[in-house]
Amino acid sequence: MRFNTRVEIFFNPPEKILAYFKEDKSTNKARCISAWDQGILFYDINGTGLKLKNIAKQIFKTGPHKGQ
Q1: CA distances (Å), origin 18, targets 5, 36, 40, 55, 63
Q2: Which residues have C-beta within 8 Å of that of residue 17, sequence separation ≥ 6?
Q3: What distances in angstroms separate CA 67 from CA 1, 23, 38, one per listed residue?
Q4: What does the domain layout of the chain look like in residue ranges?
Q5: pLDDT of residue 11
Q6: Total-model pTM
Q7: Of 5, 31, 33, 38, whose CA is between 20 and 30 Å from 18?
Q8: Is pLDDT at 56 greater than 80 in this prediction?
Q9: Measured between alpha carbons, how far is 60 from 68 in angstroms, rounded to an integer?
């Protein structure tokens, strides 16, 4: 908790986040996908976070179990 707000910080490389997305899809759960879809980026120096967020949004639209 920071400033009365729940904060979650990711320190994983993009490849690991993409692997979490794939795992979410294969287990029909959307924990990581949902966090990236609904979360707010506070600091994204090179745009990688925004790219991951957009991927999560696309997956979430079709449902975590559909697609790849």
Answers
A1: 26, 11, 18, 9, 16
A2: 10, 32, 36, 52
A3: 35, 12, 20
A4: 14-62
A5: 85
A6: 0.78
A7: 5
A8: yes
A9: 13
